[in-house]
Write a structure and sequence with these properties.
The protein has 205 residues and is an alpha/beta fold. The chain has seven helices and seven strands, in the order ααβαβαββααβαββ. α4 links the parallel β2 and β3. Belongs to the methyltransferase superfamily.
Length: 205
């Protein structure tokens, strides 16, 4: 049976012992994909890290000079792990940590960038419209000229018409997975770039 990725109880049990884990690709590899899209941003850019879990992505963002990073996860243990990683790396905690549900985002700030590393995949394990709810919440939190980058195992993660009505969507990278044998088939993870459509382009939601 597949893991109950959409259930908070699953993550609470997992994070009780897990201190570090990277989904789909290392944060260093993900940063290589992100680099062309982050290089033109000021260090003061507000970045929303969705489903931060026990990833060290926030460490890499801080190393690149981004301090206004908000790490969101709906399991408090994940945020404790994130703060511990940051304190061990830098001696202090400068990024932000917030308990929240990525399918019910209601944040006061607007962000220049939203980033998720397979969080949309986990959310897709829930109710049918969970990814749509996530997309609508991310759109509410993004600046009009902002963007969302999502790393996913799925080649059709954002095929839902509701999502297409609010975002321009493109695959900016296909990240090859490692092979056990040279004859193994090529398998990729997909990195999506989602930019909010202008209000005049959007049909009613």
């Amino acid at each position: 049976m597949p893991a109950n990725f959409e259930k908070q109880s699953y993550w609470r049990e997992r994070f009780a012992s897990e201190t570090s884990f990277e989904w789909l690709a290392s944060s260093a590899a993900f940063m290589d994909v992100l680099a062309p899209y982050l290089q033109h941003l000021a260090n003061s850019a507000r970045i929303l890290h969705l489903g931060s879990g026990t990833s060290d992505l926030h460490i890499h963002l801080r190393q690149h000079g981004f301090l206004d990073v908000t790490n969101i996860d709906y399991e408090p243990l994940a945020l404790e792990r994130g703060q511990h990683l940051e304190r061990n790396q830098f001696g202090d905690v400068r990024t932000k940590y917030f308990v929240g549900d990525a399918t019910r985002l209601e944040l006061e700030e607007r962000y220049h960038v939203a980033i998720d590393k397979s969080t949309a995949d986990a959310i897709a394990c829930g109710v049918d419209d969970a990814v749509v709810s996530m997309a609508k919440g991310v759109r509410r939190c993004l600046e009009d000229n902002g963007f969302w980058v999502c790393l996913s195992y799925s080649p059709s993660r954002f095929e839902n018409e509701h999502v297409k009505r609010i975002f321009e969507i493109e695959v900016i990278s296909k990240v090859p997975t490692s092979k056990t044998r040279p004859t193994d088939p090529d398998i990729f993870h997909y990195c999506y770039l989602l930019r909010p459509k202008r209000q005049t382009q959007q049909s009613s939601r």
